[in-house]
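Interim report, section 4.2 (structural modelling).
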Amino acid sequence: MIELSAVEKTFEQPGGDRVPALRGVDLTMPAGQFLTVIGSNGSGKSTILNVVAGTYLTDAGTIRIYERDVTRWPEHKRAALLGRVFQDPFKGTCPSMTVAENLRMAELRGKRRGLRVGLDRASLDRYRAGLASLGMRLESRLQASMGTLSGGQRQAVTLLMATITRPNLLLLDEHTAALDPRAAEQIMVVTEHLVRTHSLTTLMVTHSMEQAVRFGDRTIMMHRGMIVADLAGEERRGVTEADLLVRFAELRYTAEMRVTKDLAISR
Amino acid sequence: MHNSRFVAVPLAASLALLANCGGGQHTGRPIIGVVQISSLVALDEAREGFYKALADSGFVRDVTVTFLERNAQGDIPTLSLIMHDFLQQGVTHVATISSVATQTAMKVITDRPIIFGAVANPYVIAAGTSPTSHRPNITGASIPLPVDSALAVAVSAFPKAIVWGTLFDPADPFAEHYLGVVKRKAEQLGIRFVSVACTSPQDIATGVQALRAQGVDGIMQVPSIMIGGGFPSLIKQARELGMPVVASNTGYVGTPLALGASFYDNGYVQGLLMIRVLRGENVANIPFSVSANPQMVVDLGAAADFNLTIPPGIIARASSVIPIKRDTPGVASTKTPPRAANRDASPWEFWLAALVLGLAFAALAWGVYIASRVLRFPDITPDGSFPLGAAVAAALITSGVDPLLATLAAFFAGMVAGYVTGLLHTRLRVTELLAGILVMTALYSVNLHVMGRSNISLLDRATLATRLHTIASATANWSNDISFGAVFLVLTLVMGCGFTWFLRTDFGTAMRAAGDNPAMIIAQGVDRRGMVELALALANGLVAFSGALIAQYQGFADVTMGVGTLVAGMAAVILGETLKPKRWRLGATIAMVAVGAIVFRGLIAVALRIGLSPVDLKLATAAFVLATLALPNIDLGRRWRRNPS
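Predicted structure of the assembly:
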């Protein structure tokens, strides 16, 4: 189970302006849930992912991953429990190394990296099988340099790397946004396959309403650093992209009123 | 805005406190500001001579006289600051060591006496127009360097040597002058005189080879502060090739025959002049003096090492003769068995010397490769960690430690230096360049502390190659360079294989990724900061290792030998990458970086060998490196034209 309680995060702009990105966010995800997060730019949807990953430390509140309080853990320590795929296909892998080397590094996430050449026959077989399961004919590229792969292929390998340790939580940060529609669709199919096969608890931030309702078990919408809508189960079933747009326009309006009122009071 | 005032008040207070500490507490006692441009052996000796003269006349440090000793450590602008500091501190007299220090002093200090020393020609720097007609507040002792008489003595002492030559540092302000004097004398004597450019102590051994290759039989070295610091290297190489060496300064250990003055004596005369001023004489009335008459020193032990006989006529004329000494017991003597004098010049020996140097520089190239290519960290530390390795190895070897242990200790010392650079960057958030600059700067002082002086000679000391050489020179008649080459080749191969294996391990892979993609490696659970620190430690360990090898090969460690290290390392890395076929992987890249180091040394050797005007040496080196880098691209261009696709 993943629990965020009363999480606050404010960024200071270079000019000195303070921009609240998360305002007392509470979120609980039971094990195995596939949650999609939507929201406009600056709504805090990426920040929520980054505070869980440890890229930023929270100003207040606690974050627990499977009973462990990770609130003050540095990013690299939390990585042992997580799998991550970034929006930028260049960010998740090392271009100068081979696909196999990249997978080996991911497999050792949270483990000791010793003075031993880890790429042996057994591990190569394991990676070949993993790549084959993606259905993108990447198994023949095991010894290719990562830099020679296309954006979609890189994201597929990054997904395999993120899930290879069966992490407690998979974090997907708009991971199809930089791809062309065909590659994006292919990556979503791979994502769905990996998440369901390994029953991974998953938090996917997306800019696409269509993806948000089509995939996952639950959808939340962020606005101005708050969760303004939370759809799951019966309520979520049958909801279309158009429904969401209308619904969220209303919610956004009421949230806007609330923020304005808060600001008025605090002044 | 409000904050700045709170900071400013205590800052101003502490500055005022500091200023108070500095001045006004030495009333009554003369305060002599002693300033030298850098820590070169010659200048250090001059300073000691100066102190000795004062001590001999009863001026006791901190009792009857206060010394403020300053050293600009090679940075000329710092000299001006030192002079202004002298004024602030209320010095009463200034003693300048070297021409540049004197020039700066004259500019800043006009109202109190300046006594100069270690100046070759006071008229060139406009201190005066004749010994008696000079600026009112300045006098001093210039150092006599009769290079023309030195050549005449050289020719009569070693009549078998027909062609004479010298190494020449184009950056030395007086080298040109001396070279002109000695060439005129050579013309008069009807002998050929050859000069070969040498711009860094590392190039001395190759330079001597180049002289030999141009048919030079004997070396009459003109005065040069830089080459003076690397004199052991010159002696070692000349001895190996059976070329007699005559120096135009005295005081270089291992020189069979020298005619000139020692910087120590010059400092002593400078001290005597200072005493006259301290006792109340007017500076304006003290003429410039030339320190001591030129001394002719014959070192019979050194001559024996060269397998040379000094004619009795010369010995009779010598002002001092150093007899053959027995080797001090306990100190490992590793003198090369004397070889037949004036062996035929064989060109391959010249290229071998360049190759041996290249092998010693391979570790440097790998160090720079780790920082700049693997970690993508612009690390400047090598300019300090390279001489650190040399200093540590030299200091340990002279205190009797086994050369192999000393070399390993140098490696670890370099690792510490690199680790500190890493810490400054990762924990204190100092930018990459600044972190390197800070550590490199601090290491200059550290290196002086490690050595205890600016230069340690390793001539005739045990080195990594000694054990092999004592056997090989007796059984297979190997030259010194072959022994060094064999040892360096083995070391380079072992290190290269170990290094490649390390980068392939799980740990090494993570290190490579830390430079390649920081975001990714953190997401894979690696503490990137720790990785940066370790990688920099490894990089500078390799650089220091290289420094230790070079010190042993060239026969000395010098505090200034770090200049240009990073440039040489980068050149080797880039050459290696250019020469490497595109599809090659890690192990081959590492091998090619080592080849790059050898090629770079080779290109310098070519520039030396073709006998251009010495001033053009660096230009030629740059042109060769450029040509090597451009070659693959030119080739590519042709291929494109042939198969348009």
